[in-house]
Automatic annotation (TrEMBL), chains A, B:
InterPro entries: Epimerase_deHydtase, NAD(P)-bd_dom_sf. This is NAD(P)-dependent oxidoreductase. Belongs to the NAD(P)-dependent epimerase/dehydratase family. Residues 17-176 form the NAD-dependent epimerase/dehydratase domain.
Length: 250, 250
């Protein structure tokens, strides 16, 4: 056997990636767009969408550590989307799903041997800058959440920083804008994230060798208010879409 | 009645201040040092220390909203110290006392009409800079907690930012160093917070008109690694102690 053949074999093996919350709009889109690139396992909270039945999958409440832990065994990476995604979510709901659930997923990922966590964060972590139109917003500015939802996602970012520093797991937090098939109004005109740009930024995050990072994830919208320079520079993101193409000249 | 006499009366009325976790080392010291300045109410988790029996007090688990809420009725300010203060605390413990408990105290403070929250944070929010000796550390740098305890305190800071932005409550977060009667070793030599400096920084925070701030709270130790310039500039803190006075010449 030639020296190095084992290394080649490892490099060619597809990474095993768990997507939590895969029944959601983003998760189900990612499942289809990343299925060739990775060996996917999907996590669902309750119901299994018909279109995703043929994927390897698990059903569990992420707030129940014993239920979710087996899903994280022997994965290389986890894309953690499962959450209450509403900016109007109550404290009880974000406590259950976004705080306890996120801790459980990160801890199970560590115990299961994952080397990468991609955490779906949100612009709502910084929403008070937007409320006050203090633009542009850069990802390194102090957090100013606009909701308990935003607070709970900031918690996930901080927990990710700890897991990166303490355990050497690469953690990439993506502050996802407005994920839609197409932009549809003035707000999505600047905060849109297209499906293909979403898929790209997630695989760039999976492949990134950074130890930790927090990045805005939106398309290259001409009217954006949030900086994506570091997403481009540090994560290698090359957005292909711009919401402006969907609107006529003024 | 002269115009303005009501205003004068209000200005002369002592502020009503609740100290949570007042049985702790810091809380019991603050109770004695601030009793003349404010109308104090003390919160204890379980037992009432003998020395503090004559104070107005309540006993409650802060993780139980219904139990703690009455303590926050009609206070002007809360100094929130109650927490599991150990850097080695488990997730279950920080979840209970530091995350759920802090949410309950902030929310009850808001409902009770408080205009000020002084939140006892910690250097452990930034402990990974210290581990890596990336000094000096400034309070505005991105958080890098060294423990789940540090993560839980970063959560409290973020929640405070939200309460300030959303509800107009002034929230001052103090990253308290090592509170000791006297410094005793090389570490306390740079991170010491003396009892009288602690009392001062807390009343400065209560009196501050800032909408929000995060500040290191240590004495003016000649060998400090953490910046207190903004504590001095923005909070008006005038530290009187320096650990160096307790050590001989080298």
């Amino acid at each position: 056997m030639e020296a190095g053949s084992g290394v080649t074999a490892m490099a060619e093996r597809k990474k095993r990636v768990l997507i939590t919350g895969a029944a959601g709009r983003i998760g189900s889109e990612l499942a289809q767009r990343l299925r060739d690139r990775y060996e996917l396992r999907l996590h669902f909270h309750r119901t299994i969408p018909e279109a995703l039945r043929d994927f390897d999958h698990v059903v569990a409440d992420i707030a129940d550590f014993g239920a979710i832990a087996p899903a994280l065994r022997d994965v290389d990476a986890v894309v953690h989307l499962a959450a209450d995604p509403s900016p109007y979510a109550t404290w009880q709901s974000v406590l259950h799903s976004n705080i306890i659930g996120t801790y459980n997923v990160f801890e199970a990922a560590r115990l299961g041997g994952a080397r990468k966590i991609v955490f779906a964060s949100t612009n709502h972590v910084m929403g008070m800058y937007d409320r006050d139109q203090q633009w542009p917003v850069y990802s390194h500015q102090p957090v100013r959440p606009d909701s308990l939802y935003g607070v709970s996602k900031a918690f996930g970012e901080t927990l990710g920083r700890y897991y990166a520093d303490r355990y050497g797991i690469s953690v990439i937090c993506l502050r996802i804008g407005w994920f839609l098939p197409e932009p549809r109004d003035e707000i999505s005109r600047w905060m849109w994230l297209s499906p293909r740009d979403c898929a790209q930024v997630v695989w760039r995050a999976i492949e990134s060798e950074l130890d930790f990072g927090i990045f805005y994830a939106i398309s290259a919208n001409s009217r954006r208010h949030w900086d994506i320079t570091d997403t481009i520079e540090k994560l290698g993101y090359r957005p292909e879409d711009d919401a402006e193409r969907y609107f006529g000249p003024e």
